[in-house]
Amino acid sequence: MNVKKPAGSVLDGIRKMLSFNINVHANSTNIQNELNNYKWKVDTKTDSILDVPVKKYDDAMDSIRYPLYTFM
User: What's the predicted TM-score (pTM) here?
Assistant: First the structure.
């Protein structure tokens, strides 16, 4: 089943997550991997970082962000 997300909800959720200290258990290697590899798109002409997340290394982050965004 697809979830209908309001426009801008992904960025809002990411910004909310960034406002917290996130403690990750040593055994949570998938989450550690995602946090270490999460990227933002880069403008190839200017090398500036865009406000657009790369859709890679984000599955666990999405599962943390969904309930956080729901209860904001």
Answer: 0.68
